[in-house]
Each structure stands twice: as structure tokens, then as C-alpha cells.
Amino acid sequence: MNNFNDDDDDEGNKQSTGFFDDAIERLDREETNDSEEEEEEEEEEEEEEEEEEEEEEEEEEEEEEEEEEEEEEVRESSPPMRFSKSCLKNLFMVVLIFIYLLLTGVAFFLAYQTISDFLEKLNHPVMSVTYKEVDSFSPPGIALYPGRAELLSCRHHFHDYIPQESCVVVRGPSDVRNKELIFMQFSLNETEEDFSAINYMLFSKFSDLTER
After folding, report:
1. Same domain for 67 and 91?
2. Which of 41, 85, 106, 140 is deepest in the core (most CB within 10 A)?
3. Of 151 and 112, which is predicted with more confidence?
4. What domain count does the chain have?
């Protein structure tokens, strides 16, 4: 009986070890299958990622090509705009240069005019004249050279040389308040020709002539 039981135990142990071995093999197979499936899934994911990357690269290339085409179209359509802008810039620069030259010329002209006026004033200084109202003053002297002419008009002029001729010396007016005037009358000349002007000289003081 004991031997039979021992045999049964041995057979049971063999069966149990075989069962465990089968289970371990199954687990190993399942693990290998799982690992293979995982590797396949990873490979598939990598392939999908690569495909997505390729698609993205293709899309980017297409977008770049589209952008290049748009840029080319813009370049083809923009030359007249650029030409017009350059023309406007050049015209604007020409106008600015013309205005600058005009203002420079006006400034030079004004400077020249100012300097010339200043030099003229230096060469011909203006003397201020002061006067005082008086009741009377010393009478001036008036020398007339009628000759044989009749006095019809009188004019003032400057003369550097006075020839020696007979003259009439008249005492000038001196009373300011009564508005003293001098009235002179001449007869016809011997030739009976009209005379339109008469020479004269003015002296500051009539007494200077009488003292001589």
C-alpha cells in the first residue's frame, strides 16, 4: 500500500511539475507575444509618426511654394508701384532742393541788401537837424544877376564857378511872425526877349556883404 501511494505521489508530483512547466511556457509565450505585439505597435506608431512628419514636411513645402508663388505674383505686380513710389520720392527731393535753393538765394539777397544799406549809411551819415522857433533872425543876403533880362521865373541850382558880373544884392526877409516877403520887379530888356530863369546866390548874413 505504501508503494502504491508513493507511486501515486510521484505521478502527482510529475503531473504538477508538468502543469507548472506548461503554465510557465504559456506565460512565456504570452509575454513574448505581448512583447512582439508591443514592438509591432511601437513600430506602427513610429511609422505613423514618420508618415505624419512626412505629411507635415510636404504641407510645409507646399505652403512655402505657395508663399513663393504669391511673392512672385506680388513682385510681378509691384514694379509699377515701386516705380511710381521712386518717381514720387525723386520729385519730392527735387522740389525740396528747389525750395532750399530759393530760400538760400533770398537769404543771400537780403544779406547783400542789408550790408549795402549799412555801408551806404556809413559813407553818407544822416545828420540830425534840430531847430528852434524864433521871432526874428538875421536877414540873409540874396545876389541877383539879371543882366539885360526880364525876370519871368526863378529856380535854384548848384554852381561851382560864378562868373564876375554885375549883380543886385538884396536884403532878405527877417520877420518871421509877420511873414515878411520880398517883391522884385524888372523892366523889359533891351532886346525885348523873354527870359525864363535868373542866376542868384544866397548868403547866410546880409551884413557880411555890406561890411565888405
Report:
1. no
2. 140
3. 112
4. 3
